[in-house]
Amino acid sequence: MRQDKILIIGACGQIGVELTLALRKAYGNNNVIAADIKESHPLLKDDGPYYQLNVMDSDATLNIVKKENITQIYLLAALLSATGEKNPKLAWDINMQSMLQILDISLQEKLDRVYWPSSIAVFGTSTPNEQTQQKTIIEPRTVYGISKYAGELWCQYYNQRWGLDVRSLRYPGLISWKSAPGGGTTDYAVEIYHEALKNKHYTCFLSENTYLPMMYMDDAIRGTIELMQVPTDKLSTRMAYNISAMSFSPKEIAESIKKHIPEFNIDYNPDFRQQIADSWPKSIDDSLARTDWIWKPEFNLDKMTENMLLNLKSTI
Ligand code: SER
Predict the structure, then answer these.
(1) Which fold has domain 174-214+244-312?
(2) Please, are residues 123 and 136 in contact by the beta-carbon 8 Å criterion?
(3) Spatial separation of the C-alpha atoms in residues 74 and 32, rounded to whole Å
C-alpha cells in the first residue's frame, strides 16, 4: 500500500475547513494538502501544506497532484443552490467543469479514491417528500440540483466504465460553527445561532413550518471519512448515498435556542429561497448507508444547539 496523500479542493469552505482538520488528525498534517481560491483560512494557517488554486485551472491542479504525489482528492468547491439560481449558467459551468476535470486527472494519475459531494437538492417537487428513499423520482428544480444529479451519474459512469473509485454523499443542510456556509438555502440554520447570540433576534428567510433535513458538521465529517475508508466491496451503489440525521423547521430550531436564550425571538420574511426549500424533501431515508457502511448520526437538534452555542460563544 502506498502512503495516502490527500488533496482537498475548496478547503476554506464550510465543509472544507473541518474536513481538512479532521483528515490531518487522521493521516498526519503533511499528508493532507489544502487548496482553495482564497489566500488562506485562519484555522488552516500554519497547520499544514496549502495552495491557492482556482479549481477551473486544470493544469495548476494537475501540477499539485504530481508534485505532491496525491493519491486521493476531495473536491468541495462549488456554487450552492441560492447562488446558483442567480446565475444558472455560471453554476453549471463551475460545478460540472471542475468535477469532470478532477475525474479526468484522477483517472490519468491513477488515484486510489475521489470524493465528490452531492446533496438533497437532487430531489424535486415530484419526489415523495417524507422519508425520501435512495431510489425515487429525481427531477431537481434548481441548477445546483441538476448539476448534482448529473454529477452523480458521471461519478457512476467513471466507476463503471473505467473503474475510478469515486464516492459521494447526498448531504442535507449542514450546520457548523468553525466556517460559515455561503449561498445555500439551508444557511438560515447557521445564521440563526449567530444572530441569537449577537442580537437575540433573527428574521428568517424561510417560513416557520418549512421542514428540511439537516445535520451537524461533526456527523457530516465523520460520515464522509467513514465512507471514504470503507472497503470497496461494501458499496452497493455508485450514485451518492442518502444520509440523514434530523429534520426541523425554523420554528423548532428557534424553540431549541430559547431553551438557552429565553429572550430570543424570531420572525419570518420568506424570499426566493422558500421556493427552493419547498422543492426539497422534509426527511430522508438513509437505510442504505446504515446497512452498507453502518452510518449512524450522533447529534439531534437539542444536542447540536447546545454544542453550537457553547462553541460560538467562545469565538465572539
Ligand atoms: N446546503 C445546500 C444548499 O442549501 C444544499 O446542499 O444549497
Answers:
(1) UDP-galactose 4-epimerase; domain 1 (3.90.25)
(2) yes
(3) 10
Distance CA 227, CA 249 (A): 28
Q: Which three cell numbers stand for residue 109?
A: 494519475
Question: What contacts 24+ positions apart, CB below 8 Å, involve 55-62?
Answer: 55/9, 55/10, 55/94, 55/98, 55/101, 55/102, 56/94, 56/97, 56/98, 56/101, 58/101, 58/104, 58/105, 61/9, 61/35, 61/101, 61/102, 61/105, 62/105, 62/108, 62/109
Query: What are 145-194's pLDDT values in tens digits?
Result: 999 999 999 999 999 999 999 999 999 999 999 988 889 999 999 999 99
DSSP 146: H
Q: Which of 74, 115, 144, 216 is catalytic?
A: 144
Q: Are 112 and 27 in contact (CB under 8 A)?
A: no
Ligand 1 centroid–CA 184 distance in Å is 5
Could you report the per-residue pLDDT of 105-123, keeping only the tens digit for each?
A: 999 999 999 999 999 999 9
Q: Does the active-site annotation cover 74?
A: no
Domain boundaries, the chain: 6-172, 174-214+244-312
- The CATH superfamily of 6-172 is NAD(P)-binding Rossmann-like Domain (3.40.50.720)
Residue nearest to atom 3 of ligand 1 (CA): 184
Characterize the bridge pairing of strands 265-268 and 241-242. unpaired
Residues in the chain: 316
